[in-house]
Amino acid sequence: MRTGVTISASYAASNRPPVQPARSLRNNEEGKVVLRVMVQADGTAGEVQIRSSSGFPLLDEAARSAVQTWRFNPATSDGKPVAEWYLVPIIFKLSN
């Protein structure tokens, strides 16, 4: 009998943050993108959807592209890795 997810997915601290596109920097674009990621049982990112846009397509795509390559700690159920949707917030902020 499956008891449901006992440990939720998370992302590995070693993942490289997305790079803010040069054009976005020139245009002073900043914001928060929230991605919905299907974390596979093997820790890779399956489907990556934009759950909440930053309002800037370049930032949204930079976040989506980067997270697509990330490694995750998969969720577990009954001690076995399982696929699970996971929300990943990405913040692009201009430096002063």
What would you say this structure looks like, in words?
- Helices cover 18% and strands 38% of the residues.
- It has 96 residues and is an alpha+beta fold.
- It has a single domain, classed as TolA/TonB C-terminal domain.
- It starts with 9 loop residues before the first strand and ends with a strand.
Key traits:
TolA/TonB C-terminal domain; 2 helices; three-stranded antiparallel β-sheet; alpha+beta; elongated
Structural topology:
Layout: E1 10-11, H1 22-26, E2 31-39, E3 45-52, H2 57-68, E4 72-73, E5 75-77, E6 80-82, E7 84-92
Q: What is the CATH architecture term?
A: 2-Layer Sandwich
Q: Could you describe the largest sheet, including whether it forms a barrel?
A: 3 strands, antiparallel
Q: And the CATH topology? A: TolA/TonB C-terminal domain
Low-confidence segments, ≥5 residues, pLDDT <50?
Answer: none
- How would you write the strand order of the largest sheet? 3-2-7
Rg, nearest Å:
15 Å
Which H/E pattern describes the elements? EHEEHEEEE
Please bin the fraction of helical residues: 10-25%
Mean pLDDT: 91
Distance between the termini: 55 Å
- Based on helices, strands and strand pairing, what is the structural class? alpha+beta
**Helical stretch tally:** 2
Estimate the global geometry from the Cα principal axes: elongated
- The CATH superfamily is TonB
Q: How many distinct beta strands?
A: 7
Q: Approximately what portion of the residues adopt beta-strand conformation?
A: 35-45%
Number of domains: 1
